[in-house]
Amino acid sequence: MTRIDNRKSDQLRKWQFIPGFQRHPLASVLSVSGNTRVICAVSLEKSVPRWMKEQEVPGGWITAEYQMLPSSTGTRGERESTKGRISGRSAEIQRLVGRSLRAVVDLSKLPGLTLHVDCDVIDADGGTRCASISGASLALQIAAQKLLDDGVITENPIIARVAAVSVGLLEGNVLLDLCYTEDSAADVDMNIVMTDKGRFVEIQGSGEEATFSEKQMMEMIKVAKHGLIEIFALQDKALKQK
Predict the structure, then answer these.
(1) What domains are defined for the chain?
(2) Bridge partners of 27?
(3) How many CB atoms are located within 10 Å of the residue 63 CB?
(4) Over 80: is that where the pLDDT of 85 sits?
(5) HEC string for 58-80
(6) d(Cα 125, Cα 73) in Å, to the nearest integer?
(7) pTM of the model
(8) Count H helices, E strands: the chain?
(9) How far apart (Å, rounded) are the C-alpha atoms in residues 200 and 208?
(10) 213: number of Cβ within 10 Å
């Protein structure tokens, strides 16, 4: 089928990672996926959450926050801070980002430290959670190296890098890296989170008033893995350029 941007069915949008996008955080990366852009920043707190202290849990912690700026879509959205609470969608995504990052970090090597990962969507055109995870993982790796260089930690806590990409079924076709128009019309939407060692962290998939077969599911995972390998290569390229 002909896609809205003339891509092949198994072709990524134009992805790019720009390290050092902000001046003040420990590390930051602008994660670009087509017309979707997310600022991923890592900040250090020399303390751990209260529950860790109360339960005497050793090591450190990584927590994530996600938000879409009011002007990130065609229609201005209200700031969630003015509502007094974040939306269910934002809460679900930031939990996903946090789980994905903690899965590839040895928290015992961050003694008494918390790394706050902020993912702020400045332009949204589908795949914001995938761009957030992929950019945040790279920012986390840069932050860990800086902590090592500064003598704040003595061992690298990063076990692997992680990335995520969307894949879906539209009119019976498996499509990689859906833009918003494709995502909103898809019969099935999946988000695949995987490490650079080829191990899965999370697979989210659901039919939108539709069902899908095991064969279709395996084909979507296969296409997603193909895209994730490309994303890891782009992360590597950004690290080398830095």
Answers:
(1) 15-241 (3.30.230.70)
(2) 42
(3) 17
(4) no
(5) CCCEEEEEEEECCCCCCCCCCCH
(6) 8
(7) 0.95
(8) 6, 9
(9) 23
(10) 9
